[in-house]
Amino acid sequence: MNSENPLASWEGPLRSEVGGCFPGERAVFRGLDLHTSLHDADWLDLYLFGITGRRHTAAQLKVLHAIWVMTSYPDARLWNNRVAALAGSARSTGTLALAAALATSEAAIYGRQIDLAIADFLERAHHQVEAGAELEKVVRDELQRNRSIGGYGRPVARNAADERIAPILDIASRHGLADGKYVRLAFAIEKILLNGRWRMRMNYAALAAALALDIGLSPQECYLYGFPTFLAGMPPCYNEAVQRPQQATLPLRCSTIRYEGPKQRLWKE
To answer: Is residue 60 situated within a structural domain?
Structure first.
């Protein structure tokens, strides 16, 4: 490799190990023919194969499907669904509306970035405990560094259990995937947080990440797998907004705003 110009070794035809399209002949997906070897694959099976290079069992796919289903809320008040609804209200195209809504789903505080953060922490915590560390100290150290732990705490329902946890655990139990080491770890962390001064319950992000890690996904794979998690709830919000009069989604009169800034000023020439 040319150390002075690292791009030089990549110059020329694109080289790829993940696949290629040969129009009029075939399409190759990670070494398999898409239209013969993979033609009857479940879509999530194909999606995960693209991310991980591995195929998954029917039980694993059922649980991973359910994780998506359980958080598809068609509520236009939610931050990302609101983008889809407002785009529909402005008569944007559906593709632009959903793309923008999915982009805002990456929010670091309550979106897809949490998947990466909590999966990373669960992995680190597991390795530290395996090396002999006390889990409570691991949790305290993490809180001291970051002031919070992704996947724990839910301001919109601080004292209530997350409504998605019981049904996803039921599905995971029926498929023999509810008692993995990361799921047990996630609940052990919740117990520490509830018994301490933090009083934080586990939310859905922590359990979803733990299930995905137990299935064998890495933190980065958890993050990419989670990309469409909110998608199913977005088209209903967009369609409903399109059916209303233009700009009639979440309109707000200026008179309803409580304004405490400078008084009205007149423009002067």
So the answer is: no
What is the predicted pLDDT for the residue at 196? 78
Same domain membership, residue 82 and residue 164: no
pLDDT above 90 (res 111): no
- Same domain for 180 and 135, yes or no, is yes
Sheet containing 26-29: order of strands:
19-22, 26-29, 32-33
Q: CB burial class (10 A; 0-12, 13-18, 19+) of residue 77? A: exposed
Report which residue type is found at 164. R
Q: For residue 239, what are the contacts with CB-CB under 8 A and spacing of at least 6?
A: 88
Give, in order, the Cα–Cα distances in Å from 209 to each of 51, 61, 212, 241: 16, 14, 5, 33
- Does residue 61 belong to any structural domain of this protein? no
Per-residue model confidence as pLDDT tens digits over 51-69: 999 999 999 999 999 999 9
Q: Which domain holds residue 76?
A: 72-105+230-244
Residue 27 burial by Cβ neighbours in a 10 Å radius (0-12, 13-18, 19+): middle
3-state secondary structure of 85: helix
Flag whether the pTM goes above 0.85.
yes
Which run of H or of E encompasses 220? helix 219-225
**Distance between start and end Cα atoms, the chain:** 65
Same domain, 93 and 173: no
Nearest to 80 by CA among 60, 99, 58: 99
Q: What is the pLDDT of residues 121-178, one digit of tens each?
A: 999 999 999 999 999 999 999 999 988 898 998 877 777 889 999 999 999 999 999 9
* Domain count of the fold of the chain: 3
Max Cα–Cα distance, the chain, nearest Å: 75
